[in-house]
Amino acid sequence: MFAQIIRGKVTDPDAVRLVVNRWMRDLGPKATGWLGSTGGVTDDGQLFVLVRFESAEAARANSDKPEQGQWWAEMEKLLDGQATFRDSTDVYVQAAGDPDSAGFVQVMMGQSSDPERSAQLMTDTLPARRALRPDIIGSVIAGHGDGKFTMVIYFASEEAAREGERKEIPPELKDSMTEMMALVVGMPEFLDLRRPWLDSPK
């Protein structure tokens, strides 16, 4: 799987969403290998979009189409400054429900000092974490090398997410969660998408 992350600054989220909707209507059905997109704008105007394809080759074939270039030129007009792009072929998707039904999405960007151990802990604790946090209906993790990662977490609602954050971690999870947090380098960056754009071929 391949994922591309696009970030930028915008002043009119509704105008950006209209342009994104046009891609979904006109270009999405012809985008071979497109698996889904998650996007939105934070309260302070930060645009975040994650697009998933079956492979880097499928994504490249799509970006090479003239109509894709024309669409992006339209999108660029709505950006305050240049967009940044980040690609990943190290993508892990986990779903406990339908992520496209999420009412709130939180993005976490950070770095792990030991990505292999972090991945193992995530796998080992998955059943216990699902039991603790039924408000989480899915996640996408994209690795960027050097332990850097972007994690996109899908919640039923922001209210449910905040309530879940206040839950006490049970003893059987505490050691693993403490170790996971100790592997995070520095302070991660968080983005809250309160009006997420969730699109997929279905």
Describe this structure in words.
It is a single chain. The protein is α+β, with helices and mostly antiparallel strands. It has two domains: 2-87, 2-Layer Sandwich (Alpha-Beta Plaits); 90-193, Alpha-Beta Plaits, CATH 3.30.70. It has helices spanning 13-27, 56-63, 66-76, 115-124, 126-132, 158-165, 171-182, and strands at residues 2-9, 34-41, 46-53, 84-88, 90-95, 104-111, 136-143, 148-155, 189-193, 197-199. Strand 2 and strand 3 form a beta hairpin. The two termini are 18 Å apart.
Write a concise synopsis of the structure shown:
This protein is of the alpha+beta class. It has helices at 13-27, 56-63, 66-76, 115-124, 126-132, 158-165, 171-182, and strands at 2-9, 34-41, 46-53, 84-88, 90-95, 104-111, 136-143, 148-155, 189-193, 197-199.
Number of domains: 2
Q: Report the strand count.
A: 10
How do the helices and strands follow one another from N- to C-terminus?
Answer: EHEEHHEEEHHEEHHEE
User: What is the share of helical residues?
Assistant: 25-40%
Low-confidence stretches: none
Describe the oligomeric state of these chains in a short phrase: single chain
The major β-sheet equals: 5 strands, antiparallel
- For the record, the CATH architecture of the largest domain stands as 2-Layer Sandwich
Class by helix and strand content?
alpha+beta
CA-CA gap between termini: 18 Å
What is the CATH level 1 assignment of the largest domain? Answer: Alpha Beta
Number of helices: 7
CATH fold annotation of the largest domain: Alpha-Beta Plaits
